[in-house]
Design brief:
The protein is mainly alpha-helical. It has 2 domains: 11-81, Glutaredoxin (3-Layer(aba) Sandwich); 92-120 and 164-249, Glutathione S-transferase Yfyf (Class Pi), Chain A, domain 2 (Up-down Bundle). The protein has 10 helices and 4 strands, in the order βαβαββαααααααα. The protein has helices at residues 19-30, 44-53, 71-81, 92-121, 125-132, 137-158, 168-183, 197-210, 227-235, 237-249, and strands at residues 11-14, 36-39, 60-63, 66-68. It has a 4-stranded mixed β-sheet with strand order 2-1-3-4, sandwiched between helices. α1 (19-30) links the parallel β1 and β2 (36-39). α4 runs parallel beside α8 (197-210) and α8 packs across α10. The longest helix is centred in the middle third of the chain and has 30 residues, at 92-121. The model has no long low-confidence stretch (mean pLDDT 95). The chain binds glutathione. Residues 15, 18, 20, 46, 56-59, 70-72, 106, 114, 158 line the site of glutathione (GSH).
Length: 254
């Protein structure tokens, strides 16, 4: 598949370890769009986001003068600029359903996965520094290890990370995986007959829990205290679907 010669080469500003960012990376790879990636250190990325888009989160995509500061906006822009290998279905009913599911996973599943992982990660400064430093080398890890005690309370507050005794993140993830399992009981894809933004979004967010080894960013192992739960999620029908879907489609262009 050819990409349009007329389009400028997009630039993706991203955080190597983040699942929202994996969603944007996968979309670019799925659509085989040549692009430039700029990985930034967590925390520093907020200043870059402010400068680029007046926002605080990554991923951010630049296409020429246009700036898209949200993973869903990025996917819509990619389909608009590079229509081949569409992620958003053409059929109006399928389109509506796919975007509705994307919105649900963006606002319910992704924050719950993040809160769940951080509940177990932030109590371990060494593991926290290792995960947050992904893509940056030993110097970055040492630096993040030093600032972790000051960063951890801020991250708990910013990302709504309750104490481990509060099980809302776990309950929320399990409920979402249950629903995904029910929706894919007798079908390969969440919407229609083709891989869409709904599948990509759900599988991006669940990959750290169900197929960590398949993620190209090479994340470190999750905290041991999460192992029993991730094994349970990976064995649920929705967890198995997410792992299968990620492995089958993350590198489908190769
Ligand atoms: N709705 C946004 C959410 C992105 C998001 O929350 N990104 C996180 C990385 S996991 C981030 O940059 N967080 C930093 C912050 O909120 O300060 C999207 O889909 O792009």
């Amino acid at each position: 598949m050819e990409t349009s010669e007329a389009e400028p080469r997009p630039v993706l500003w991203h955080l190597a370890m983040s699942h929202y960012n994996e969603k944007a990376r996968w979309a670019l790879d799925w659509k085989q769009i040549p692009h430039t990636r700029r990985a930034t250190m967590p925390a520093v990325h907020a200043a870059v986001a402010k400068r680029l888009a007046g926002t605080e989160t990554f991923p951010i995509l630049q296409i020429g003068d246009e700036v898209f500061a949200d993973s869903s906006e990025i996917i819509a822009a990619l389909d608009q600029h590079w229509p081949a290998r569409p992620l958003i279905p053409d059929d109006p009913a399928e389109r509506e359903r796919a975007l509705e599911l994307q919105q649900q996973f963006d606002t319910i599943l992704a924050p719950a996965v993040r809160s769940l992982v951080y509940q177990h990660l932030l109590v371990d400064p060494d593991l926290s520094a290792k995960l947050l430093a992904v893509g940056g080398g030993a110097g970055r890890e040492r630096m993040l290890r030093l600032v972790q005690p000051a960063m951890a309370p801020l991250m708990r507050k910013n990302f709504d990370v309750p104490p481990q005794s509060d099980d809302w993140p776990e309950r929320t993830v399990i409920a979402q995986v249950d629903q995904i399992g029910a929706m894919t009981e007798d079908r390969e894809f969440l919407v229609g007959q083709r891989f869409s933004v709904a599948d990509l979004t759900a599988a991006s967010f669940l990959a750290p829990l169900v197929c960590l080894d398949a993620i190209p960013a090479r994340l470190p192992e999750l905290p041991p205290s999460l192992q029993a739960l991730t094994e349970r999620i990976a064995s649920m029908p929705g967890g198995q679907w997410a792992s299968r879907t990620y492995r089958a489609n993350r590198f489908a262009y190769r």
